[in-house]
């Protein structure tokens, strides 16, 4: 068993078949392949976050046991919100995190804002913090209203978990 180094070559040559020698170029391939496999396996365990349009969002929030969050400011919420939603102001991080602590990480969370930007950010936060299923309303409440979907005005939040009252 042994390794020979040739002065005119950069690579070791194995002359014992029981010994596996990695050449630098092969080692790079092995490391890259290993890194790819690790990242793929981590993505399998990643939380589920998706963006859906108003029609699909409306259908899904009719299910029992969902959690519906409006992540806009209180004055926006009072102007009109989806029935059954709870306010969790994304721009007030302390209030948002307090509201999020009340949520069940094992139950689906549906989030929306005015146009979809804040709720997409909030959905990412929820997903990163262990919520198993997070769904963002693509286009926000503007897209919801554009599709002719109902909203209700006032400040009375219905609570965190919906029992399909929509």
Structurally, the number of domains stands at 2
Shape: elongated
Largest sheet: 6 strands, mixed
Put simply, the count of helices is: 6
SSE pattern, N- to C-terminal: EEHEHEHEHEHEHE
Unreliable spans are: 40-46
Give the total of beta strands. Answer: 8
Model description:
The protein folds into two domains: 3-44; 48-163, Rhodanese-like domain (Oxidized Rhodanese, domain 1, 3-Layer(aba) Sandwich). The strands form two sheets. Strands 3, 4, 5, 6, 7 and 8 form a six-stranded mixed sheet that branches. Strands 1-2 form a two-stranded antiparallel sheet. Helices cover 37% and strands 19% of the residues. It has 166 residues and is an alpha/beta fold. Residues 40-46 have low confidence and may be disordered.
Structure described in brief:
This protein has 166 residues and is α/β, with parallel strands linked by helices.
Which SSEs are present, and which pair or pack?
Layout: E1 3-5, E2 12-14, H1 24-44, E3 48-52, H2 54-60, E4 64-70, H3 74-79, E5 86-87, H4 93-101, E6 109-112, H5 117-128, E7 133-137, H6 140-146, E8 161-163
Parallel strand pairs: 3-7, 4-5, 4-6, 6-7
Antiparallel strand pairs: 1-2, 4-8
